[in-house]
Specification:
Layout: E1 3-8, H1 20-23, H2 28-38, E2 43-48, H3 52-62, E3 68-72, H4 81-89, E4 94-98, E5 120-123, H5 128-139
Parallel strand pairs: 1-2, 1-3, 3-4, 4-5
The protein binds ligand CA2.
Length: 140
């Protein structure tokens, strides 16, 4: 595995700017620089969108230029059959990450539609979950 794409869904552009009690105080852009230094031999790409169709297009395109995906579909995790279908339609492995523990929150967050098409899921380990997901992709 030489290259991995990280995809963040809606509202995750607000990381580090709002609700630090749930999502921490670090912006993803700062964390992404740390990730690149943790994995110097890996080419890491980052894409964030608040738009479902843009996320789907990026998932479809990804298998042409990366070997794996780490995705946090945000609120779409609980609703989007279309994103789940896009994940199911590609041949590269996808790991889903949630910064918060979705099982310790409202009941509607316990249904993870997109995760049904992923190799695995990490939830509740903060931003470190992205690092652990990359480790998994490298080892499997
Ligand atoms: O815990 C996660 O990573 C979530 O995917 C985050 C989503 C939420 O809908 C999922 O249930 C769990 C929400 C992303 C919103 O991100 C914000 C970050 C900072 C401030 C406000 C929202």
């Amino acid at each position: 595995m030489k290259s991995i794409l990280i995809i963040n869904g809606p509202n995750l552009n607000l990381l580090g700017k709002r609700e630090p009690g749930i999502y921490g105080s670090e912006t993803f852009e700062v964390y992404f620089e740390k990730l690149k230094s943790i994995f110097p031999n890996l080419t890491l790409y980052y894409f964030q969108s608040n738009i479902e169709g843009e996320l789907i297009t990026k998932i479809q395109e990804a298998e042409k230029f990366v070997d794996g995906i780490v995705i946090n579909p945000g609120g779409y995790s609980h609703t989007s059959v279309a994103i789940a279908d896009a994940i199911g339609a590609i041949s590269i492995p996808v790991v889903e990450v949630h910064i918060s523990n979705v099982h310790a929150r409202e009941d509607f967050r316990k249904q993870l539609i997109t995760a049904t098409k992923c190799k695995g899921i990490i939830s509740g380990l903060g931003l470190d979950g992205y690092e652990f997901a990359i480790e998994f992709l490298l080892d499997n």
